[in-house]
């Protein structure tokens, strides 16, 4: 079971991930569909060109941190444990995803990711902040707090 915040009314809902894979969970208060992703297990979700709209743009009022990275990038590899920690500590307050820019050029081009690591923060389907370069965890957390 995980706790999912309704993007429409803000109510907290318990969601069984097993059942959510078979049918769309709905908010117990307002009846709106709830966003459920694979990031509910405390790990960053893998963002691709194909699932970007579902995982990021349709997340509603829950902020989404997207780490744009590549396997050959040393600063990206140094940032990876921080991204994993943020995902594990999110507690439903925000979502965390990772976008491999080499494998997903459409999203990388759409948001003009020219250097990596780049972290994009989305809220209500809109890009609200962009962080470029290797940053310490407190700086990233501070930016996420601004958008909660």
Query: Which ranges are low-confidence, i.e. pLDDT below 50, for 5 or more consecutive residues?
Result: none
Basic shape = globular
Beta strands, count: 7
| Distance between the amino and carboxyl termini | 23 Å
Helix content: 25-40%
H/E series? EEHEHEHEHEEH
**Cα-atom Rg, whole angstroms?**
15 Å
Give a quick account of the main beta sheet: strands, pairing sense, barrel closure.
5 strands, mixed
Which sequence of strands runs across the widest sheet? 3-5-4-6-7
Tally of structural domains: 2
Given helix and strand content, the structural type is alpha/beta
Quickly give the CATH architecture of the largest domain: 3-Layer(aba) Sandwich
How much strand? 15-25%
- What's the CATH superfamily of the largest domain, by name? Glutaredoxin
Question: Averaged pLDDT, please?
Answer: 87
CATH topology of the largest domain: Glutaredoxin
Helix segment count? 5
CATH class of the largest domain: Alpha Beta
């Amino acid at each position: 079971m995980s706790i999912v915040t309704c993007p429409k009314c803000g109510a907290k809902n318990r969601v069984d991930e097993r059942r959510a894979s078979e049918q769309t969970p709905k908010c117990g208060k307002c009846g709106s569909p709830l966003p459920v992703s694979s990031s509910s297990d405390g790990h960053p979700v893998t963002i691709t060109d194909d699932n970007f709209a579902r995982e990021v743009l349709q997340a509603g009022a829950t902020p989404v941190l997207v780490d744009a990275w590549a396997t050959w990038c040393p600063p990206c590899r140094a940032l990876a444990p921080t991204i994993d920690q943020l995902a594990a500590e999110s507690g439903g307050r925000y979502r965390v995803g990772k976008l491999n820019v080499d494998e997903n050029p459409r999203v990388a081009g759409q948001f003009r990711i020219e250097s990596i690591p780049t972290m994009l923060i989305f809220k209500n389907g809109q890009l609200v902040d962009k962080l470029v370069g290797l940053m310490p965890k407190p700086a990233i957390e501070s930016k996420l707090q601004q958008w909660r």
